[in-house]
Every structure is written in C-alpha cells, then in structure tokens.
Amino acid sequence: MAKEYKNFIGGEWVDAASGERFENRNPADWEELVGTFPKSDERDVLKAVESAKKTLKDWSNMPIPKRGEILGRAGDIMVERKEEIAQVMTREMGKILKETRGDTQEGIDTAYYAFGEGRRLFGITTPSELPNKTIYTILKPIGIAGIISPWNFPMAIPTWKIFPALLTGNTVVFKPASDTPATANLFMEILDKAGVPKGVVNLVNGPGSKVGEAILKNPDVGVVSFTGSSLIGSRIAEVCGKTLKRVSLELGGKNPQIVMEDADMDLAIEGVLWGAFGTTGQRCTATSRLIIQESIHDKFMSMLVERAKKLKIGNGLNEETDMGPIINEAQMNKILNYIDIGKNEGATLIYGGERYTEGECSKGWFLTPTIFTDVKPDMRIAKEEIFGPVLSVIKVKDFDEAVKVANNVKYGLSSSIYTRNLLYAMKAIENLEAGITYINAPTIGAECHLPFGGVKNTGNGHREGGKWAYEIFSEIKTVYIDYSGKLQKAQIDTAVVK
Ligand code: NAP
Description:
Strand order of the largest sheet: 14-15-16-13-12-18-19
Strand content: 15-25%
Shape: globular
Number of strands: 21
CATH architecture of the largest domain: 3-Layer(aba) Sandwich
Helix content: 25-40%
Structural class: alpha/beta
CATH topology of the largest domain: Aldehyde Dehydrogenase, Chain A, domain 1
Radius of gyration: 24 Å
Largest sheet: 7 strands, mixed
Distance between the termini: 83 Å
Number of helices: 15
Bound molecules: NADP nicotinamide-adenine-dinucleotide phosphate
Number of domains: 2
C-alpha cells in the first residue's frame, strides 16, 4: 500500500479538510504509486495562514544568527539524507540520480549560505548631510510569505525561497507543485528536525487553482514568491496586484546557445547536449535554440546527431541513464504537439521526435531527444517555450545576426556563446537580452550565491540566489538618529547657496 502523506500545519501532520487525496505516480513507470497526498483547498490555507500569523512575532524576534543556525542545521541534515532525497525526487520527478543529487546539493549550499547570511544581513550606513546625525538601514521581515514552486527542481527551488524567507524573519505557507509533493514533504521533515519552531513553516498540498489561488487572495500574506510558467505568473501578478502584495516571479525561458565558427567544436557539442537534453530539457534555463554560423553548420549537426543517438533513455534510478522521462502525460502531449507544429512550419526533423517505448520505457512518458534544423527565427518552435528535449537549430551568417536572432523572443533568462574571439564574447555579454550569459559553457549551471533570474517576460525584475533573494523577503527600514539637540532641517539647513 502506497504511503499516505499529509499536510504540515502548525507543526502537525494533518489531512485536508476535504478528506480527499490525490495520487503521485512515477513518470518513468506509471504503475508505481509514489504516494497519495491531501487534496487541500481554501480551508487548509486559512489554517496554515493562522499558524503562520501566530508564530510570526516570536520567530521574527529571534536573533537573526540564531535563525541562521537552525537553517545551517537543516543543511547538515540534508547532507546526511542526500541520497534518500535524491532517490525520492527521481521517483516522483524522473530526472536522473546525478541530477537529483545536484538538486539536493543546491539546497544544501543554499542552507549554508543562509547560515552565513545570519551573521551579515547587511544594511548600509552612510554619512548624513547634517552634523551630529547618524543614518543607516536595517532589514525587517514582511510577514507571511506565500511560496509556490514548480516540479522541475523540487528541492532546490523551495530552498531558494524558503531559507531566505525564514532567515529574514518571515513565516511561510508553502504550496509545492502537485507533481512533486514527496520531496516537499521531506523538506518539511528536515526543517522540523532542524528546530524550526512549530507553525513557522506550513505545507499545504493541492491544486494550484484552489490552494495557490487561496494563498494569493489571502489578505494576511504579504509576499508571494513564485516560480513557474509565464501564463500562471501573469495570473499571480494580477491577483496579487489587487491587494498590493509584493510578488517575485521567476518564469519561462527560450534560451539560445550561439556557436561561432572559431569555437572549440567538441566543447560546444558537449555544451549543447547537456543544455538541451539534461533534465530532459525541462529546465527554465534549458538550451532550446542552437544558433550556429552557417560555415560550420553541417559538420556540427552530423557530430551532434551522432552524440544524441548515444544518449541512454530510461529510468533515472539506473545510474547508466542519461535522460529520464517527461514529467507527465499532459506535458508529453504538449511536446509532441510542438513537434508536429515544427514539421508543419517547414523545419526539418533530423533526429528523434517520437515517443520512446523500448523495454522498461513502455510504462513511462519517454521521448527521444529531438533536433530540428532549417528553423527560421519566426517559427513557433523558435519562439515559444516547449519545456522538453527539443532543440531548434537556426543557421546565421555572422555574429550580428546571431545576436539579433537570440534576442528575437519574449523571454530573457539564460544565454550562451561558444567562441575563441574575445570581441564576440564581450559584445555578447553586452548585447544578449538575458539575465545570465555564459561564455564557452552551456545555458545551465547556476551557482547559488549569484543572482538568478531573467529580463523581459521571464520575470518581474527580482533575482533569486545570493543576497538578492533576501531583498525579496525584506522591508528596508531607514533610520535617522539626530543627537544635535536641535531641530535640523534636511535640504534647508544644508543648502550651499542660501
Ligand atoms: P506552472 O504550471 O506555472 O505551475 C507552477 C506552480 O504554480 C505549481 O505549484 C502549480 O500548482 C501552481 N499553480 C498553478 N495554477 C495556479 C494558480 N492559478 N494560482 C497559483 N498557483 C498556481 O509551472 P510548472 O509546469 O510547474 O513548471 C514549468 C515552468 O516553470 C516552465 O515555464 C519553466 O520555465 C518555469 N520555471 C522557471 C524557473 C525560473 O527560475 N525562471 C525555474 C524553473 C521553472 P499545480 O502543480 O498544482 O498545478
């Protein structure tokens, strides 16, 4: 019998008010039921918000380094349980063990960053324009943070959000993606064990349309941090706008890898294979466009196809597997539909493009790695996020055309260029419209202490990672201390010309 998971509210493991449950199945083998989870609704969110409200004062009054120590302990427990977390994550999400270990490691790194930040959380001090006056800033919590996360990084993304929210003194109501609730459950167990006081973090499982919406609409929630599709992101901004909540949105991408004729070809091939087909292309930073100079196009493509053929497709629990399944049937059908769109638009399918059902894969949502050439910059497969192992290859004459094509999308998350020419590298850094640019490295590979996020429709200007994540969850208080003993008027008493 599959495990019956619960919500975590007020420090207790509880069922949904509805008493209903939903299933979570392994996308590599739909006969395997990972567990059943509470199908919650607004009533459960209200309880979670009440609990977050009740505990806010004590938690935000705890000295910040002490909060940091608790989060550091969470990192220690994640180190001890790393393999267990990776196995659970692979079973419910499908990506290969190497990657789920990496996903967990990102959570660990983020925990230790939070531990260190507990002894920093710097404001600024700066000179006053008036004598005998001290001015500085401090960071205060916003209050209750609503956290809504996607399924593709089931541990890393919740930790990017929840550790900074907690360190800055907020309490949390967390709704994970319905495809990856088991990893979220483990994360709650770890926070509890690490000593996060009961009620400070609350987990509510259930559909976005009910649980997510109830978080957005709750007047006591002060900040919402969301990672997911641009479609839902814009809905979130709309609902939260009504109550003037702070909203941080990390959304879709259509990331290009440019390859110039002077590039190290082998390196560029390694990069595009990892960027396009790692995590089965289900990363916001996945390489979905290869923009390549025409002089090397044919040779590069035949080398790339040879390598793509060798990728082993299968269950991510097998250490030999290179590429796991698609997350669910709906997403697989969406990708297959895009493959049809590409064919109908006149692109040439040079590899893959179909379901993969060999052996053990017959019971899962597997696709072959897919490569389209003759893609024109205005085709839908060149502009829309597919979120699967589909690479659209666009041929260009020169560097200027490459940058123009790269920027010809509504997204702007990650970007990459392979070249040995310093001028091209520097001009790419300057001109690519993206939050992240890699030189001679694939579009994926973010490190937790650097800002992460994008321009254009990829978000609304916030950055996760490093100290920037802490700004999302903080109010800045500006402090003026006047010890002159008299009324001093800024701008008036200080004017040079009176
Ligand atoms: P999604 O469909 O937008 O869902 C994301 C989360 O929002 C899930 O927890 C979902 O719940 C919830 N949700 C759905 N409808 C909602 C509503 N009306 N109100 C509130 N919450 C709602 O995205 P996804 O398919 O999980 O993830 C893939 C997308 O995430 C891609 O577009 C990818 O580019 C993006 N992504 C971006 C980044 C980044 O940092 N920029 C990182 C990773 C992924 P349910 O699961 O219950 O539907």
